[in-house]
Amino acid sequence: MTPLPDLWPALPEIFLALAGMALLMLGVFRKGGSVRPVAYLAVLALLFAAILVTGAGGGGRALTFNGLFVMDAFGVFMKVLTLVAAALAIIMSLGYIEREQMDRFEFPVLMVFATLGMLMMISANDLIALYVGLETQSLALYVIASFRRDNARSSEAGLKYFVLGALSSCLLLYGSSLIYGFVGATSFDAIAKALAHGHAPLGAVIGLVFVVAGLAFKVSAAPFHMWTPDVYEGAPTPVTAFFAVAPKIAAIALLVRVLVGPFGDLVQQWQQIVIAASILSMTIGAFAAIGQTNIKRLMAYSSIANIGFALVGLAAGTEEGVRGVLVYMAIYLFMAVGAFAVILSMKTKGRMVEGISDLAGLSKTHPMMAAAMAIFMFSMAGIPPMAGFFSKLYVFLAAVEAGLFTLAIIGVLSSVVGAYYYLRIIKVMYFDEATETLDPVGDDAMTGVLVVTGLFSLLFFVLPTPILASAAQAAAALFVGG
C-alpha cells in the first residue's frame, strides 16, 4: 500500500484550491449581490495562504508528491510576493468592475484559481508539475483578459493572449519532450544529476532553448513580447494591473528555478539566451515606449523593459544575481501596483480615461495623486533615493561581478532612455494645463493602496534589511537545494 504524501509543504495550495471552490459555491447560491462578499473573502483567503506559506516553508527544503513539488525559502519569498500582488489586484478591481457593470462573482474566483496555478509553478520540481501549474494559471488568465464580453477590445485581448499562449505552451511541451528524450527524466533533481559537470546531449540543450522560449513568453521578455501591449491595452484595467505583477513574479520564479536548479551546470549554454533576451527586452521596452500616448500601452513596454532588467541578474548565473532578481521583483511589485492604482483612479465624469494627456494639470487638481504618481515614475526611472534605484543597482552589480560589463552598460543606457518617458508623465502632471479635470479618487481601498505603495517606494532606503535579508536567504536556499 502506497503511503500518503506529506501534505504540509503543499498546504497553502490545498487551502487555496478548497477556498476557490467554496467561493464559487457561495457565489452561485447567493446569486445577486455576491461580488463584494466573494471578493473580500478571496482577499482573506490569499492573505491566509501567505501565512500558511511562511509556516510551510519554515523547515528548509521539503519535497512531496513523489518529488513533483518542492518547498523552500525561495518558494516562500516568491509565493508571498505573488499572493500579496493578487490580493492588491482584487482590492483595486472592486470599484472598477462595479462601475463598468462587470460585477460578477466569477471575477475574484478566477483570480484565486490563477494564483493557485502561480503557486504551483513556483514549487514545481518536475517538468510535468511545471506544465500543470502553468496551464492552471493560463486558463484562468485567458478568461479574465476577455471578461468584458460586450467590449471588442477586451475580447480581442483575450483571443490574442489565448492564441499566443497556446503557441508558448507548444514550445514548452516540445522542449520538455526533448529534454525527457535525451536525459530520460522529467524530475528536476534527476535532470540535475544527469547533467552534472556540464555534460549535456545536444538534444537536451535544444530542448532547454524551447523551454526558455516558452517561459519567456509568460514573462513577456523580448522577442516573445508581442502580445503584451495589445493585451494590456484591451483587457479591463484591473486585469492589466494583475497581469503586470502576479503572473510576472511567478513566471520569473519558475524561470530562475528551472535554470539554476536542473540546468545549473549548463550556465554557459543558457547564459547566452538570457543575455540576448535581457538586451532585447531592455532596448525594445525603452525605445518603443517613447511614442506611446496610451498609458496602459506605455506600462506594457515599461514592464517589458523591467523584465529585461530583472534578467540582467539572472544572466549573471550567481547567487548574488538571483538575489538581485528577487529584490528587483519585490520592489517592482509595489511600483507597478501603485502606478496602476493611479491609472484606475483616472476618471472624468465617471468615465475611465487612459491617455497620458489626461493627466495634464493633475498637480493642481489632485496634488496627492500627482505626488504618488511622481514617486512611482521616479522610482521606475531608477532615480535615487527611490526604491527603483536600489532594484537596478543590485542586478547591475551582480552583472559586473560576473564580468558581464557590456550587459550592465546596455542596462544603464536603457535605463537613461526609459527615464525620458517616465519623466514626461511628471512633466505632463506638473507643467501642462488641464483640459478636463479628473474625478477625485473617492475609494478608501484605492487610497490605502496608493499610500502603502507610495511610502514603500519613497522610504525603502530607510529600512531595506527585511527584503534584502529574505532575498539573500531565498537565493542561498535555491543554490544549496538545487
Main sheet: strands, sense, barrel: 2 strands, antiparallel
Write out the strand line-up for the largest beta sheet, numbering strands in chain order. Answer: 1-2
Order of helices and strands: HHEEHHHHHHHHHHHEEHHHHHH
The proportion of residues forming helix, as a percent range, comes to over 70%
Number of helices: 19
The amount of beta strand, in percent, is under 5%
Task: Work out the radius of gyration.
Answer: 21 Å
Question: Explain this structure to me?
Answer:
With 482 residues, the protein is mainly alpha-helical. It has one domain (8-481). The protein is 74% helix and 2% strand. The protein contains 19 helices and four strands. The chain has helices at residues 11-30, 35-56, 73-99, 106-122, 127-145, 152-183, 188-194, 202-218, 228-234, 237-260, 267-288, 295-316, 319-344, 362-365, 367-381, 387-401, 405-431, 444-459, 465-481; strands at 62-64, 69-71, 347-348, 351-352. The strands form two sheets. A two-stranded antiparallel sheet has the order 1-2. Strands 3-4 form a two-stranded antiparallel ribbon. Helix 12 (295-316) runs antiparallel to helix 13 (319-344). The longest helix has 32 residues, at 152-183. The protein is globular and about 65 Å long. The two termini are 31 Å apart. The model has no long low-confidence stretch (mean pLDDT 87).
